[in-house]
From TrEMBL, chain B:
UniProt source species: Niabella ginsenosidivorans
Annotated protein name in UniProt: NADH-quinone oxidoreductase subunit E
Assigned keywords, A-Z: 2Fe-2S, Iron, Iron-sulfur, Metal-binding, NAD, Translocase
Record Gene3D superfamilies: Glutaredoxin (3.40.30.10), NADH-quinone oxidoreductase subunit E (1.10.10.1590)
Family in the record: Belongs to the complex I 24 kDa subunit family.
Annotated positions binding [2Fe-2S] cluster: C88, C93, C129, C133
PROSITE patterns from the UniProt entry: COMPLEX1_24K (PS01099)
Cofactor(s) for this UniProt protein: [2Fe-2S] cluster
GO molecular function: 2 iron, 2 sulfur cluster binding; active transmembrane transporter activity; inorganic cation transmembrane transporter activity; metal ion binding; monoatomic cation transmembrane transporter activity; NADH dehydrogenase activity
Length: 434, 169
């Protein structure tokens, strides 16, 4: 299977970080094209492309854009979500570090389509060196007439500002992000109203992921219909996957969504197989919030079909036997890894990151962490496993934002598929303590 | 204890105005996170005095600043060492041995996570996923990441910090 690259094709060209090189390699054509079209027609192209949000939820981008409210005299905003904090996910960072102009180009076209004259990039605070790279790209785009007042004489004005977060996973959730942009604690708001109706400063706001906005560039260049021909079914275009864990070649890969999970793990083009010749035990394919799958269910669906690297195939079977594409954070575990310990570190993560507004999430994540630590260290009881199951089931669906679900799902999946390993920790306390 | 005057330089004040101008009229509170970053860079950490100063600059109540400063992990509410090592301990880093790295740094500097060395040079902290899982184990040190850590690399980093510190004294 040959690989199609739409986003990272030029990422390795020397000097691509700078405007001149980027432009020489075909950069900013999509802006020239879009500004000659009506904004609605740009939205239409994105609709035709079938592009789905790359931040994890997979919501159709064109549809979201068409939902933006347009009350008379009220400014609208586009906000780029660069908060990337989901364990296992480091694709947006790669894009911003190596080919920043692709994001800026996508932001200009998207701002035009949505009528946003002031657009923000909200980036996680820890990526402290990346704002310099982005601001440099913005300044260059502006110096060349692609940003600022009356871009390419189209009458469209646009400014892009970069704002750093300050260390809070929850600020990746779009309404928490908006609160943070307004200078507040990152406490999620109740949806609806969706940001597209009432967002930053109560104005209509579209929040999109870095990769989603970058994908608008090839969509404009090739046309939505052509883009939709890549991939399969409702998984159109290409997807960035950040791969890590016990593999030979960790890194960021662009795939078209017709390859199988097996190919992705074992082919030298991608992960290059399991490190040290070990056996594959399990995988979390879409960032820490999605269910872990044991090797057999990862490579083949419950129906015995090859599992493919796309939205539909990864979620085939629901949570009983499937998982999710999520943010594309692909974490691979070899036979030596302990699922109980890993589930504990994830529980610790979610307890640490809960904003504390909803009691099921605030209390539940704390309980799960405690129980998992006890089990991992060989001090657990059989009834703890059932208690753990009970707690996670009471969080799911009972909270303001999906962080609660995201904390519950990994625990549920670990018990569902690896119950014997939890039981072993109870029946072999001494070995577990080592 | 605090000898530096809590006041931005002219240049920093200009930066503050530029930041405020990014947001809609009357929404200068939106500048809070960036201005707190600026204050932390200038004064090392966020004392009550510093937070009150930021509140006065943005014309908001001090409590609005405290609320925010305590919510986000990157703001230091007490003094930290000149060099802060924040080692990621989340799953993908753990697989690659982050526990050993944390223990090694702790032993070498004779501090536990959360502590600062007596000479005020180093602070060790644990962190949750920093978006470098493919380059694990890793830590954040100031503005930059140090990736693919090994014990030898840790030794070299610490030696370099000590060198730089004695050179700047
Ligand atoms: N990339 C990362 O680092 C992380 C990603 N995630 C992902 O986030 C996902 C959950 O995100 P949510 O935003 O809560 O999902 P969601 O399903 O509520 O929303 C997805 C997007 O569609 C929009 N939307 C949905 N219905 C709409 C409507 N009727 N009108 C207008 N807009 C509408 C929302 O505003 C949002 O932008 C999870 O699936 C997870 O994979 C979670 C943690 C970190
Ligand atoms: C707890 C939590 C954290 C999230 N973190 C991120 C994130 O870091 N980056 C991101 O793009 N989306 C994140 N999301 C999803 C956003 O809420 C939103 O769906 C996304 O930014 C929309 O962009 P898209 O449609 O382009 O995917 C998070 C959601 C939740 C519930
Ligand atoms: S689910 Fe958790 S993180 Fe989300 S709003 Fe409730 S307490 Fe906060
Ligand atoms: S797990 Fe350490 S950087 Fe992601």
């Amino acid at each position: 299977m040959s690989s199609i690259k739409l986003l990272l094709e030029n990422a390795h060209i020397e000097g691509i970080r700078y405007f001149d090189t980027y432009r020489k390699n075909g950069g900013y054509r999509s802006v020239e094209k879009a500004l000659k079209m009506a904004p609605e027609d740009v939205v239409e192209e994105v609709k035709k492309s079938g592009l789905r949000g790359r931040g994890g939820a997979g919501f159709p981008t064109g549809m979201k854009w068409s939902f933006i409210a347009k009350p008379e005299g009220v400014p609208r905003h586009l906000v780029c979500n660069a908060d990337e904090s989901e364990p296992g996910t480091f694709k947006d960072r790669y894009l911003m570090e190596f080919i920043p102009h692709l994001l800026i180009e996508g932001l200009i076209v998207s701002s035009y389509a949505l009528g946003s004259n002031t657009t923000y990039i909200y980036i996680r605070g820890e990526y402290a060196w990346i704002p310099d790279i982005l601001e440099q790209a913005i300044a260059e785009a502006k110096a060349n007439g692609f940003l600022g007042k009356n871009i390419l004489n189209s009458g469209f004005d646009c400014e892009i500002y970069v704002q750093r977060g300050a260390g809070a996973y929850i600020c990746g959730e779009e309404t928490a992000l908006i609160e943070s942009l307004e200078g507040k604690r990152g406490n999620p708001r109740i949806k609806p109203p969706f940001p597209a109706v009432k967002g930053a400063w109560d104005r209509p706001t579209v929040v999109n992921n870095v990769e989603t906005l970058a994908a608008v560039v090839p969509i404009m260049n090739m046309g939505g219909e052509e883009y939709a021909k890549i991939g399969v079914g409702r998984s159109t275009g290409t997807k960035l996957i950040s791969a890590c864990g016990n593999i030979n070649k960790p890194g960021v890969y662009e795939i078209d969504m017709t390859i199988s999970v097996e190919e992705f793990i074992y082919s030298d083009e991608w992960c290059g197989g399991i490190k040290n010749g070990k056996r594959l035990k399990a995988c979390i394919p879409g960032g820490s919030s999605v269910p872990i799958l044991p090797a057999n269910l990862l490579l083949k669906t419950a129906k015995g079909e090859q599992r493919m690297m796309n939205y539909e195939s990864l979620s085939d079977g629901g949570f009983a036997t499937g998982t999710m594409m999520g943010s594309g954070g692909f974490i691979v575990f070899d036979e030596d890894q302990c699922v109980v310990k890993h589930t504990y570190t994830l529980a610790r993560f979610y307890r640490h990151e809960s904003c504390g507004q909803c009691s099921p999430c605030r209390e539940g994540t704390g309980w799960m962490e405690k129980l998992l630590l006890r089990l991992d260290q060989g001090h657990g009881k059989m009834s703890d496993i059932d208690l753990l199951w009970d707690i996670q089931s009471k969080i799911e669906g009972n909270t303001i934002c999906p962080l609660g679900d995201a904390a519950a799902w990994p625990v549920a999946a670990a018990i569902r598929h690896f119950r014997d390993e939890f039981e072993w920790h109870v029946t072999h306390p001494e070995e577990a303590q080592q | 204890m605090n000898e530096t005057m809590i006041e931005f330089s002219q240049e920093q004040l200009e930066k503050v105005s530029q930041i405020i101008a990014r947001y809609p009229e009357g929404r200068q509170k939106s500048a809070l996170l960036p201005v707190l970053h600026l204050a932390q860079e200038a004064f090392g950490w966020l004392s009550t005095e510093t937070m009150d100063y930021v509140a006065s600059l943005l014309k908001i109540e001090p409590i609005e600043v405290y609320e925010v400063a305590t919510f986000y992990t990157m703001y230091n509410l007490k003094p930290v060492g000149k060099y802060v090592f924040e080692v990621c301990q989340t799953g993908p880093c753990m697989i690659q041995g982050s526990d050993d790295i944390i223990a090694y740094i702790g032993e070498k500097l004779n501090i536990k996570p959360g502590e600062t060395t007596e000479d005020g040079l180093f602070t060790l902290k644990t962190a949750e996923c920093l978006g470098a899982c493919g380059y694990a184990p890793m830590m954040q040190m100031g503005k930059y990441y140090k990736e693919h850590l090994t014990k030898e690399k840790v030794d070299a980093i610490i030696a370099e910090c000590r060198n730089n510190a004695s050179a700047s004294n």
